[in-house]
Backbone:
């Protein structure tokens, strides 16, 4: 991990980062050497021409020079494999090898220039030999610069509200196969921002299977603390559905990052009503639109017997949970389904209060339902500890990840961050002091518990009860293995109190991956959800 020192300065590349670049160059050089050797052996009898002696000498010296480079590159690659991330001691000879390798660029350049000059001088030899030498000069030129540089360095459509006026939705066209197509923007339809070609609206119609008349309100208005949302009628489930979009823009990211806590203004018997400020403000915005603009009143005037269901993914899932809590006084039968919501949403009291009407769904090791300020501090502490004690070289760690991406495997394998195999970890050798001593003494690396939170960032919890979807067995990446199978169970929020490191910690958060897992689970009649825990009121999850 410590950067190498070359030419009197420290570079942003470590001595154990040269395994894969070295392997790439080694393969190219070996193939190049074999090609030149084959050319020389097959055509050396044709070099008794004018200038043939020069060409013969050129090929022999070139093979010798390539052999030296191959040996140096092999040494660089082997040395780079030694030690561990924080133990560069076994790689202390790397700087000398790099100086030698850089020095070899000069004779390579000179010899390539001489070869080009001799060929251009009108050598009267076999054309195959001449073309082969030209190819070696071209290949050498193509390799110089790349090698040197490598070593040195559910979208929602919108019914726009403009100046307080809600515009009507434009019509959309469909292909004969039923897939939506985009239409050109008309001059009489004013838009602010995206969906100029109405692609988003066509996409959501195609994805949901709803009809144009089923939509009550669609908004693409997107600012900090103001999220896009839709209101639609689901006649099959007899529900008025409010769906809130997740993070898709820079404004949404700023809403996510506004992680201070504020008191949630809601009518309920809970005393401790702290919530994530950014998500709370976003939910309040949607609440005002639904109530003050009469959107929900319009929906229930069309279907008064329907029930209210609020859904969202990621940031939208957190906003949906807060929105359901705000609306519960006026709509006691409201239900909320939060897909992959953030963990740092609200207080423990609100978490317990919401379990009767909110259900969260989490897939695998998804990082967002485990994400909070306190968990990030804990993750930083654990990463420092694991990096400092890791006894595996960097290239092995990267190869393990590459193997998983190509051929699959068990996605739930233990890692050092999970606390496995701690007894076999060794102390790093960083000279006078360990990596850990370079950091603030406020960090205690002997404990696995999260850091104490400041009043600005108190511990926050996920919404409602949690259904955890987990992949069973191995799954391949290119169809070489059977399709992934999933199981589901009710889980306690404490199971999501730490950020888990794994190959799928980011992909498990993608909405298409989550929907695929849900479809697989629903299609498998043997899958079931375990019984609710005792003392917790049931939730309708139909």
Residues:
């Amino acid at each position: 991990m410590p950067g190498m020192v070359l030419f009197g300065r420290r570079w942003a590349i470590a001595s154990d980062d040269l395994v894969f670049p070295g392997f790439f160059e080694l393969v190219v050089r070996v193939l190049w050497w074999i090609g030149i050797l084959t050319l020389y052996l097959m055509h050396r009898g044709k070099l008794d021409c004018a200038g043939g002696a020069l060409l013969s000498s050129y090929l022999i010296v070139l093979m010798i020079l390539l052999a030296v480079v191959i040996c140096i590159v092999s040494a660089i690659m082997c040395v780079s494999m030694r030690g561990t991330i924080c133990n560069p001691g076994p790689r202390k000879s790397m700087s000398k090898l790099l100086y030698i390798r850089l020095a070899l660029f000069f004779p390579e350049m000179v010899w390539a220039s001489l070869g080009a000059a001799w060929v251009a001088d009108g050598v009267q030899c076999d054309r195959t030999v001449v073309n082969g030498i030209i190819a070696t000069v071209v290949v050498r030129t193509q390799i110089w610069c790349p090698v040197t540089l490598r070593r040195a360095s559910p979208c929602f459509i919108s019914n726009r509200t403009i100046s307080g006026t809600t515009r009507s939705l434009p019509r959309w066209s469909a292909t004969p196969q039923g897939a939506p197509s985009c239409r050109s923007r008309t001059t009489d339809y004013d838009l602010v921002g995206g969906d100029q070609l109405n692609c988003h609206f066509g996409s959501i119609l195609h994805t949901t299977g709803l009809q144009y008349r089923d939509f009550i309100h669609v908004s693409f208005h997107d600012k900090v603390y103001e999220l896009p949302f839709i209101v639609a009628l689901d006649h099959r489930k007899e529900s008025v559905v409010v769906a809130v979009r997740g993070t898709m823009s820079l404004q949404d990211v700023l809403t996510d990052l506004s992680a201070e806590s504020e008191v949630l203004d809601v009518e309920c018997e809970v005393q401790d009503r702290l919530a994530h400020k950014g998500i709370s403000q976003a939910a309040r915005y949607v609440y005002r639109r639904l109530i003050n603009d009469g959107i929900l009143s319009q929906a229930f005037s069309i279907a008064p017997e329907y029930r209210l269901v609020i859904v969202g993914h990621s940031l939208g899932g957190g906003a949906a949970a807060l929105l359901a809590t705000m609306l519960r006084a006026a709509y006691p039968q409201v239900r909320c389904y939060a897909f992959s919501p953030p963990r740092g949403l609200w207080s423990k009291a609100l978490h317990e209060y919401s379990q009767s009407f909110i259900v969260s769904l989490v897939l695998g090791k998804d990082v967002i339902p485990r994400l909070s300020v306190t968990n990030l501090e804990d993750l930083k502490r654990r990463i420092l500890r694991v990096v400092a004690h890791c006894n595996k070289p960097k290239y092995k760690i990267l190869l393990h990840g590459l193997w998983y991406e190509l051929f699959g495997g068990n996605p739930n394998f233990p890692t050092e961050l999970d606390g496995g195999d701690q007894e076999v970890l060794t102390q790093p050798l960083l000279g006078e002091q360990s990596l850990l001593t370079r950091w603030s003494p406020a960090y205690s690396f002997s404990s696995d518990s999260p850091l104490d939170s400041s009043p600005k960032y108190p511990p926050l919890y996920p919404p409602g009860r949690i259904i955890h979807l987990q992949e069973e067995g191995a799954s391949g990446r290119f169809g070489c293995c059977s399709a992934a199978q999933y199981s589901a169970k009710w889980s306690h929020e404490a199971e999501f109190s730490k950020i888990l490191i794994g190959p799928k910690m980011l992909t498990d958060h993608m909405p298409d991956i989550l929907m695929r897992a849900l479809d697989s689970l629903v299609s498998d009649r043997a899958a079931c959800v375990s019984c609710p825990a005792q003392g917790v009121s049931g939730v309708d999850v139909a």
